[in-house]
Amino acid sequence: MTKLYVGNLPFSATDESVRALFSNHGTVEKVSLINDRDTGRPRGFGFVEMASADAARAMAALNGTDFEGRTLRVNEAQERSDGGFRSGPRGR
């Protein structure tokens, strides 16, 4: 199983819309969109878990593409030293 970081999501994105987008490239096991813990508003990024081969296909196909007017950033999530995950190589 591979966990993908999905950044620059429109704030209108839902688990269902992200699942539909990624399911064109394989079986989506889990979608987790991140909300601000204080306001509850979307933060514009999330994670998608897929089988490794499906995740590689989805990453190649979707990184840099337009989704509801926003250019997506899709890469493999990197595990943080505190046990969480961070986005790609820079880990902003």
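Above is the first protein from milestone M3; the second protein from the same milestone is given next.
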Amino acid sequence: MSVIALLGGCADGWATTQVSPQAAAAGRQATPVDQIQVIEGDVTDRPYKSLGDVSATVNKVTLFNADPTREMVDKRLKVEAAKLGADAVIQVRYGTVGISALSWGSLDGKGRAIAYDKP
């Protein structure tokens, strides 16, 4: 195996996600992942139900991979929120993990998955 192949690794890096469900959105039609909102603050203009906390970490596997972005983290948060039947992820916060033995850099995000109350 060549050095280039070893250093190339996975083009997208690797990611971890975690969901801590508090309530199910039973009987709801699922919101498509690409339509789930990611909001750094709170929602104050409409009532909602909290479904659980979600988190995601995107890692840069090799020196040659692109640095993780908030958009990459948002995409992972949306996927995890969709598993709970969420309409949005609110109170999102981001933090860097830094360089480790398994990663050349990481970016993580955490938030609360919510479902809007139906009128």
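Note on the second protein: Confidence is low (pLDDT under 50) at residues 1-12.
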